[in-house]
Amino acid sequence: MRLPRAPAYKRAVADLAVVCDFDGTATVLDIGDEISRHFCGTDYLALQKKLFLEGKLTTRAIIQSIYTPVRAPEAEVIAFALTAAKIRPGFVELVAAARDRGAPFFLASGGLRQYVEAVLAAHLPADLREHVRIRANLAEFSPEGLRVSYPTDAESRAAGCHVCGSCKRVVVAEARRTGAKYVIGIGDGFADRCLAQFADQTYALEDSYLHGYCREQRMACIPFTELYEAAEAVRSFTPAAERPRER
Ligand SMILES: [Mg+2]
Asked: Which CATH class is domain 16-29+85-237?
């Protein structure tokens, strides 16, 4: 379903904000996993996932470990990321819907800022790219291996999360500081568990890790395969004063 372009206008107060994951949500494939598979090997990546599922690696630790053996220079890794990235249908419309109603749009990624920026620059028109605020981890490339740093680690710990590194609850809090009374969270993976807990409404990729987690925790979520429905929800969102009381 293609959405008609709504007339551009800005509300005086941003009543709504969107916090959206990148890998496997904005994109069809998880680019971080693809980088790890390509540069470190399928068996290496599978071992890291196994260790995570066994509880031997935290979210923070696996975000580092999948990249540790990457010795390729930044340009080579980014060039590969651009070939692996396919944007999920509806993502461009989702950003446009947020931009058109003046709703802040945070791209909150446990991935690496360098490839997130490159992929967005390649797939979003400049006026939409300007509307996206990227919150992601940082890669330091070197011949000894890739090191990840977590820009909001201290803030994440202060907010009560010791496992994510850059926890998405920090981004939800930042979204609320813009004045948003209602935050829509959209994701698919284990790094989106805190996003689902702190957002007011969650969209979870159908049959993803996050979808299963929400079911297990009896947390409400809206499953998606494309992002057109979320775009329409942003476009037609009604501010709290006009909305019937929830729960
Ligand atoms: Mg993801």
From this structure: alpha beta
Give the distance (Å) from ligand 1 centre to CA of residue 196: 12
Distance 201 CA to ligand 1 centre (A): 17
**Could you tell me the distance, in angstroms and rounded to a whole number, from the CA of residue 30 to the centre of ligand 1?**
6
Å from CA of 61 to ligand 1 middle: 16
Ligand 1 center–CA 198 separation, angstroms? 17
Tokens 């994701």 found at:
187
Distance 194 CA to ligand 1 centre (A): 13
| HEC sequence for 116-129 | HHHHHHHHCCHHHH
Token pair 């379903």: residue: 1
Compute the distance from residue 187 Cα to the ligand 1 centre, in Å: 6
End-to-end Cα distance, the chain: 30
Model confidence pLDDT, tens digit, residues 14-41: 699 999 999 999 999 999 999 999 999 9
User: Can you list the positions of beta strands (E) in 65-212?
Assistant: 105-112, 132-140, 147-149, 182-187, 201-205
Report how far Cα 96 is from the mean position of its chain's Cα atoms.
Answer: 17
Contact yes or no for 17/106 (Cβ under 8 A): yes
The whole model's pTM is what?
A: 0.90
Q: What is the pLDDT of residue 6?
A: 45
**188 CA to centre of ligand 1 in angstroms:** 5
In terms of residues, how long is the chain?
247
